[in-house]
Design goal:
The chain is an alpha+beta fold. The chain is built from five helices and nine strands; from the N terminus they run H-E-E-E-E-H-E-E-H-H-H-E-E-E. Strands 1, 2, 3, 4, 5, 6, 7, 8 and 9 form a nine-stranded antiparallel beta sheet that branches. Strand 1 and strand 2 form a beta hairpin. Helix 4 crosses helix 5. The termini are far apart. The relative contact order is 0.19.
């Protein structure tokens, strides 16, 4: 006899978005400055992980993949994160160097989406950031061939212990495949939740003359 599958139904689950409004006059001229403002607002509202962002990549055939990473630094040139280039996302980006990022801060009912092309950061940047990471993070990056099958947790922990024995002074080397990526934006979208789903949405689109700002339907 086949087992019945229980349906999980959230069609009646809803809440109102009442934390704010977004008007054209609220927008800064540069989208990276607007993102910096919203990051500070999210932190002030109590979000404990304001730099967490969903990173979407795709294969050359268009098969998408999504995961969370951390924004480490950004400026007018782009948004930067670090990972193992041998990972699924690293392989996707090597073959198809375009990606999308999304932030969500429920404390403020806000989202930001960013789309653009990807470039690798210089080796000097990679090494400088690796050297400032805590020892445990450096050991983890050196021990892991990210996204590859692993026989057991114990096997991974054994790799860590072996590295500790090899580098008792803590000078564990950086795997050359581990490093940073910069998303160079051509589009930002700022989304502010509003009552009755009449949300405020604005896009910044890169043009030859700078950033063009457009309000979108909710």
């Amino acid at each position: 006899m086949s087992q019945a599958h229980e349906e999980i139904d959230h069609r009646s689950t809803r809440r109102e978005f009442l934390h704010g409004e977004l008007h054209r006059g609220d927008l800064l001229q540069e989208p990276h400055a607007m993102l910096a403002r919203w990051l500070k607002d999210a932190e002030a509202a109590g979000n404990f992980d304001v730099t967490a962002m969903a990173l979407a990549t795709a294969t050359p055939e268009g098969r998408p993949s999504l995961r969370w990473v951390l924004l480490k630094h950004f400026d007018a040139n782009g948004l930067c994160f670090y990972t193992d280039g041998r990972s699924r996302k690293g392989r996707d980006l090597a073959a198809n160097p375009h990606a999308s990022l999304a932030f969500y801060w429920p404390e403020n009912d806000r989202q930001v989406r960013v789309e653009g092309r990807i470039e690798r950061l210089p080796e000097s940047d990679n090494q400088a950031y690796f050297d400032q990471r805590p020892l445990g993070s450096r050991l983890a990056a050196a021990a892991s061939h990210q996204s590859q099958p692993l026989a057991s947790r114990e096997a991974l922990e054994a790799r860590i212990e072996e590295l500790k024995r090899q580098y008792p002074a803590g000078d564990v080397p950086r795997n050359p495949d581990w490093g940073g990526y910069r998303l160079i934006p051509d589009m930002y979208e700022f989304w502010q939740g509003r009552e009755s789903r009449l949300h405020d949405r604005f896009t910044y689109t890169r043009t030859d003359r700078g950033w063009a700002i457009q309000r979108l339907m909710p």
